[in-house]
Write a structure and sequence with these properties.
This protein has 11 helices and 14 strands.
């Protein structure tokens, strides 16, 4: 549904994109990650026809983002970093205005506004000026405005920045519902847990280049398998426990005496947990905590970008 080949963009002396390829299947979620200035917003602006690339090609569906820009704008939705709504108008009037800007007949614009207000749980606040809305309500209204024409493709630039945890979860559920109905979603985010929760694939950018791509699980495997962390009641037990764990499982091991902790990288997570627990119990070594975890996207991000 979204395809880009060799996208390049320069702002003066700075190269924002140095030849980016992108391929997003229909009905999936692609997350763009990267440090500030990596080129994420530039890609979104090019795909949303707001910015022309210096080189390369991009298509959304069967339309070219440059040659077919005017037609494409009626088939995409965009929610930027800041809610693009008029604070002096009511929620309903904002959505009606967006409908009219999309050339919907007045009656159809009103009907669509009412549908979206109900869908995004804003009906009770429909007659209130947007300046009285909370941050989460404004974000929901902004998302509703981007869906006025029910676009098959939706671009979102840092959709949950500034939202409280409850509002973030609500928005995640709304986005999951849209994707379940067939919408293709491309989003940028600074929250790695958000990418882990929502995306089918992740593209990591750094200095205008793609430095990693794949599903969240695939990216985590790039920097290692499962890790077992054992925290002991007594720091004096670390030396004996370290020798015992080496004899029990194969894998790299790190000891942190200050935290009374040993971390082991293993290929067989659950089985290794059972073996280590049995060995330590048999030796009479008391454990305060024993846990199995996968690498996080935070660790992936640090590994591939160095920042």
């Amino acid at each position: 549904m979204i395809r880009a080949n060799g996208l390049r963009k320069r702002y003066g002396e700075r190269e924002a994109l140095g030849g980016v390829d992108l391929d997003v299947p229909e009905g999936t979620v692609c997350g763009l990650l990267g440090p500030n200035g990596a080129g994420k917003t530039t890609i979104v602006r090019i795909l949303a026809t707001l910015l022309r690339p210096d080189a390369g090609q991009a298509r959304v569906g069967d339309l070219d983002v440059v040659r077919d820009a005017s037609r494409l704008r009626f088939r995409i939705g965009l929610a930027g970093q800041h809610a693009a709504v008029d604070e002096l108008l009511t929620g309903r009037r904002n959505l009606e205005l967006f409908g009219r800007l999309y050339h919907l007949p007045r009656r159809q614009a009103r009907q669509r506004a009412d549908e979206l207000l109900e869908r995004f749980d804003l009906t009770d606040a429909a007659r209130r000026p947007v300046k009285t809305y909370s941050g989460g309500m404004r974000r929901r209204l902004d998302l509703a405005a981007s869906l006025i024409v029910a676009p098959p493709v939706l671009f979102m630039d840092e959709p949950t920045t500034g939202l409280d945890p409850r509002s973030r979860l609500d928005l995640w559920n709304m986005l999951r519902g849209l994707v379940a109905e067939g919408t293709t979603l491309l989003l940028t985010t600074q929250y790695l847990d958000e990418a882990d929760q929502l995306t089918d694939q992740i593209v990591v950018l750094d200095q205008g280049l793609v430095v990693a791509a794949g599903s969240p699980a695939q990216l985590k495997k790039r920097i290692g398998g499962n890790r077992i962390e054992v925290v002991f009641r007594e720091a004096a037990d670390l030396a004996e426990a370290q020798d015992l764990i080496w004899q029990t499982v194969s894998g790299s091991l790190e000891a942190d005496p200050s935290q009374r902790r040993i971390t082991v990288s293993v290929s067989e997570g659950p089985r290794s947990v059972v073996r280590i627990a049995a060995a330590l119990d048999g030796a009479g070594i008391e454990v305060e905590d024993l846990s199995l975890r996968q690498p996080t996207l935070d660790e992936v991000f640090l590994a591939v970008t160095g920042s």
